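Good morning,

Attaching, inline, the backbone tokens for the sequence recovery test we're adding to the shared suite. The designed sequence is right after.
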């Protein structure tokens, strides 16, 4: 579904309900429904255009450079060479590349979980790094970044930046 439509439904629908209830309690149910829908449409259009444009503007460079989806839910798999122990420790250190905080390190499950804090771009992200030994000296790493708030529709490219920062750290250090 188009980001503008999602934003319109989210903001317009929410505003219509709140405004409709507010007006409906003082002016009657029919006035509440009519004015709530009318206000919701105008607010939804305004917010979807404004926030949708800002999302497109902030993610334009990322999308152009990497030609990938820049939605809040991001995942990438890549290969590194080295021992599993060293790669696992390097992955723990790599959390700093996206200013994350270690949440859980489950070496027996080959899993690292981290979080990022709230910023103007998002309410924070949950990061999972999964390591898989392919063969001796070859490790496959899958990193995923998802919004901490599951209803978050946009993040201005923050999830993609988390993933790319970690991959760059792992490939260059």
């Amino acid at each position: 579904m188009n980001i503008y439509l999602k934003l319109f439904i989210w903001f317009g629908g929410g505003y219509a309900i709140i405004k409709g209830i507010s007006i409906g309690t003082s002016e009657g149910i029919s006035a509440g429904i009519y004015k709530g829908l009318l206000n919701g449409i105008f607010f939804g259009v305004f917010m979807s255009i404004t926030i949708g444009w800002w999302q497109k503007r902030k993610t334009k460079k990322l999308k152009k450079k990497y030609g990938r989806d820049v939605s809040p839910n991001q995942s990438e798999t890549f290969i590194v060479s080295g021992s599993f122990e060293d790669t696992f420790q390097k992955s723990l250190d790599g959390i700093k590349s996206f200013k994350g905080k270690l949440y859980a390190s489950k070496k027996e499950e080959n899993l690292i979980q981290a979080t990022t804090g709230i910023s103007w771009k998002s309410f924070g992200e949950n990061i999972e790094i999964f390591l898989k030994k392919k063969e001796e000296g070859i490790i496959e790493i899958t990193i995923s970044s998802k919004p901490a708030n599951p209803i978050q529709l946009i993040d201005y490219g923050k999830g993609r930046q988390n993933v790319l920062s970690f991959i760059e750290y792992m490939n260059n250090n």
